[in-house]
Amino acid sequence: MLAELPHCTQLVSVSLLSLLSRIDEDLAERTREDRCPECGGPLHRADYLRKPRGGPDDVPDGCLRRRSLCCGREGCRRRCLPPSCLFLGRRVYFGCVVLLILTARSGDRRRHSARELRRRFGVSWTTVKRWIAYFRETFPGSRQWQAIRGQVSPSVRSDCLPESLVTEVVQAAACVEQGLARSLALLSGCPAGWMHGI
Ligand SMILES: [Zn+2]
User: Fold this and answer.
1) Confidence band (pLDDT; 50, 70, 90) for 47?
2) CA of 74 relative to ligand 1 center, distance in Å
3) 44: CA distance to ligand 1 center in Å?
4) Helix ranges (DSSP H) in the chain
């Protein structure tokens, strides 16, 4: 199912992005309750808008919002980024677009030509190659992956990331949208104890 690029285009919908936005809101509030990791001061919201690519035309403002927190204590003011399901680090595409393209591509490479990827998501082959290189070369050796490793089935292959992770998590979820949200939460460093609510 996730190996079909046209299907993946439909999946990146306002419905999916709104779900991810609601989860981001919840993750931000949970993080805010934890207080500043530096000084224990109160955390205040300091959200900002991003211009992520790869989504539909009518994306609501909430889905463009990177939830962010800032310590309210004078002299600290540390910025604190809660985990996010909408955004995958600093990449300019929505996180779900990155995961869906890489997962679909691993299913049938011939049909997912550079031209097809550009037509459907406006993404260049150079960018996709960069994502592939990161997940193949850098990510498997990262602490982040070690932390995720213990939370997922041993059948997830560290030499086939992220598609092996996404496929496994989506299969175990109630629906594709929930599976994508859980994959994104894992990849964004969501604490294990918070995963059950997603
Ligand atoms: Zn602080």
Assistant:
1) very high
2) 8
3) 10
4) 5-11, 14-33, 95-107, 114-121, 125-133, 143-149, 163-172, 176-187
